[in-house]
Amino acid sequence: MTTAPTPPAICGACNHHHTDHDTRKAHCNTCQADCAYRPPRLLACRLCYEELGQEVHPHPECPIGHLDTVTDRWTTLEERAGTRPTTSWPPAMGITRLMSDEERQELADERADTNPDAPGPRPAPVDVDVLDVMTTVTTGLTTAADWLASRIQREPIKAPAGKGWGDQAHKAAVLLAAKDAADPARWRFTGQRSATTAAQWLSDRLAQRPGPCRQLDDGERQAVAEVARMAAELVRLALGDARRKTPVSEPCPAPCRGQLVVEGGDGEPPVVRCEDCGRTWTDNSTAA
Fold first, then answer.
1. CB atoms near residue 142 (< 10 Å)
2. pLDDT tens-digit series, residues 13-61
3. Which is higher by pLDDT, 165 or 176?
4. The dihedral of CA 33, 36, 37, 43: what is its sign?
5. Which of 31, 42, 65, 94 has the greatest number of C-beta atoms within 10 Å?
6. Range 13-47 burial, b when 16+ CB lie within 10 A, else e
7. How confident is the model at residue 288 (pLDDT cuts 50, 70, 90)?
8. CB neighbour list of residue 163: distance below 8 Å, 6 or more residues apart
9. How much is the CA Rg of the chain, to the nearest whole Å?
């Protein structure tokens, strides 16, 4: 079970420090708001606290924050998938001299494909790697939602069809059943099943928002948290927001002949590093 973090010493209403408040006058000296100090409320994720009276999930391990990442960045991911990648991973850098003849030819062919002056048909303007990430994330989140709904979501109310019902009572029962079946908080096993829809539904369950479901137990919460973490990590990697590390097939040229890895992909300059001797290479320099 997750241990609750230490609550911050700020007001849950105005986000200013508790020492700025005069509780006798219900007044905040910083923002001049008419509020007494109120400790921030621990949110249902058990990791984050409200800010300015709103649910905010900045904790790096918060599963609701991970699902918010998927929802917030999905449009950007779709835009990235519709463009031809301008860079490849891992970057060639100065390590091309370590490649085999076959690997160098593959790299040359890839560059020829992206050259607008090259002869022959042009490749489709899509980023296949991003499309693969979108497919993986969508499959993972919808599968997790299917699994969770099968455990915690109750069946829709059925309207009684027996005799002896008065017209008004029967109409009310039918209306109640229709509303329950159409509840937007109900997970659909068929129809629209997108990554963002699944992410939002899973987030609502973690946040214990109203719906035709019971609360999650610790095992279910942990399973959803793991799926959310992996989905957010894939999205950040695809958009270049997370640092990645890839081994190089050729050994270190130094006497240690150790394992080389390429690190980068998060907007910072890529680095080739030997995991044995620690020697590093950048685009313009070599460090011992």
1. 20
2. 888 888 888 777 778 888 866 788 888 888 999 899 988 888 888 899 9
3. 176
4. negative
5. 65
6. bbbbeeeebeeeeebbeeeeeebebbebeebbbbb
7. very low
8. none
9. 27
DSSP 275: T
Is the Cα torsion angle 82, 188, 71, 239 positive or negative in sign? negative
> Within 13 A of 175's CA, how many CA atoms are on the CB side?
6
- Other Cβ atoms closer than 10 A to 254: 14
For residue range 78-134, list pLDDT tens digits in order.
998 887 665 555 655 555 444 555 655 665 665 555 555 555 555 556 788 899 999
Give the residue among 204, 218, 102 at the shortest CA–CA distance from 149.
Answer: 204
Longest dimension (CA), the chain: 92
- 8 Å CB contact between 47 and 61: yes
Q: Which tokens is 85 given?
A: 């990648």
Q: How many CB atoms lie within 10 A of CB 146?
A: 14
Q: Which two tokens stand for residue 223?
A: 């399973």
Q: Name the DSSP class of 255.
A: T
- Token pair of 121 as six digits: 């048909």
Name which of 38, 16, 43, 49 is nearest 203 in CA terms.
43
Each residue's pLDDT tens digit, 191-207: 889 999 999 999 999 99
Q: Is the dihedral of CA 106, 110, 115, 121 positive or negative?
A: positive
202 within 8 A of 148, measured Cβ to Cβ: yes
